[in-house]
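P.,

For your records, the input lines for the assembly:
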Amino acid sequence: MRAVIPYKNENAKSRLSPILSKKDREEFVELMLKDVIKALDDAEVVNIDILTTSAEGIPNDFNGNVTITEPGLNDSINEYLQNANEPILIIMADLPLVTGDHIRKIISFSEDVVIVPGKGGGTNILFIRHPNEFTVKYHDCSFISHCEITDELDKSMHIFDSFLASTDIDEPHDIVELMLHGKGQAKEYAEKRFGSETGKGRVKISHLSKLSGFV
Amino acid sequence: MRAVIPYKNENAKSRLSPILSKKDREEFVELMLKDVIKALDDAEVVNIDILTTSAEGIPNDFNGNVTITEPGLNDSINEYLQNANEPILIIMADLPLVTGDHIRKIISFSEDVVIVPGKGGGTNILFIRHPNEFTVKYHDCSFISHCEITDELDKSMHIFDSFLASTDIDEPHDIVELMLHGKGQAKEYAEKRFGSETGKGRVKISHLSKLSGFV
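Structure tokens returned:
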């Protein structure tokens, strides 16, 4: 099997702009990507590809393949799937709460397709055993689209139920979840930016931080 | 073991008022309560208590105990826990995505305390093996409070990771999750109010509904 991470660094995550500048967001998305790569490493996924429109913001120590593609998430992933000859795990780069344990479970199901929904009808992770036959359709309630595509192919499907894996970081209030439940580098960054010590060895959202209005 | 459901019907869920009238919200919260009771029934939890400030909006076919308490969620639950002499599952009434399978798993962990976090630092479900010793503290990031209380008691803790059980229905966009992932009576109600058929045997959010602005 291989994992593929679609990734955009430049001016990414514009919905976080009320609390993070462009430069900060670019730093933050790279840390989230590092957390996702670490989860894959922890699950002993050795073949990792990044699909990106520019080589900016790829971690220096990343050992996998980086493919520069034209803009267009669906087209670039579908081309990738067409050329794949082994099971493919498509995992988004904004999932810093995902762990190696989640990945191990997701790739161990026997169903043809495993879907991890994102908030609001998104698709955070897709594991596809026979990728040549599959077409992705991200955006516009992709969770429903991917269920329908799987049905139409007469493939079996497992919907993976995890709060942590379903929490993609798009908006300020998602960073609250990251601070509460995270463990990696993106969480550390958020704590430094928005946290204050509670005195009990935990970090809470500082009432002085820009995030306090979003809790 | 026993399950206890804190419940408020009258003028409940005010954050849903942009899309549901007071009367509609009262109908909707009763359906969510029915779904929670069904999940407990499915898990063969036979002793179910409802703590409520008024007998309004209790399902007619509910066979358990209804206790009318003074307002004040923490005080009424803590009094309940003080008098308990068996493990207690505290489950909120606004969890229509929770299933019998979740409940069965939650009550089967060996840890002293099992916590199902809610969005934004809430606590959706708490399973407490030794309830006399425990004090709940809902509101103001109760997830952290309950972790700290468990730590201070030197008890073991399991944090249960489920997107469905962590999705409490507070705001319009939560109803999107209910329509996408629900199976019970509250989901049916939401579909009738806000859905339209896709022609593929699925229901999508109608662009004509009040919910369309929240997707």
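Two observations worth noting. Chain B has two domains: 2-166, 172-214. The CA atoms of residues 179 and 188 of chain B lie 8 Å apart.

Regards
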